[in-house]
Amino acid sequence: MFAIIQSGGKQYRVQEGDVIRVEKLGGETGGKLDFTPLFVGGEQTLFGDAASKITVSAEVVEHGKLKKIYVRKYKSGIQYRRRTGHRQQFTAIKIVGIA
Predict the structure, then answer these.
(1) 24: closest CA among 93, 84, 70?
(2) CB-based contacts of 50: which residues, under 8 Å, 6+ apart?
(3) How many angstroms separate the Cα of 85 from the Cα of each of 42, 69, 72, 73, 77?
(4) Chain segment 11-36, per-residue pLDDT in tens
(5) Which residues does residue 41 pair with via DSSP β-bridges, in sequence order?
(6) 46 near 54, Cβ under 8 Å?
């Protein structure tokens, strides 16, 4: 059985036991989170109001930052150059169950 959940404006396909990285969520390491799935698939397919009765339970594994990306700006002819960096924060969660 799998489910599609939404977190941080993105959708993720998850199964029990998966560890995924989502945009930073609140909560302590080892804490529990619940998600409402948009779609549930497997032996039977559920979506809409039928899928909203099911919950996806998750456990926070860790918080961290991704690799730094560099953003470069350049305008020709006027000697304008800028370089800035950004590290996106994430939360790794483990899917405990779909019930």
Answers:
(1) 93
(2) none
(3) 42, 6, 9, 12, 24
(4) 999 999 999 999 999 989 999 999 99
(5) 2
(6) yes
Look at strands 56-65 and 32-35 and give their pairing: antiparallel
Token pair 């948009």 is at which residue?
38
How far apart CA 33 and CA 88 sit, in angstroms, is: 21
- Report the SS3 class of residue 49: helix
What are the tokens at 44? 């039977």
pTM for the predicted model, two decimal places = 0.83
Per-residue pLDDT of the chain (99 residues), as tens digits, is: 999 999 999 999 999 999 999 999 998 999 999 999 999 998 889 988 888 899 999 999 999 999 999 999 999 999 999 999 999 999 999 999 998
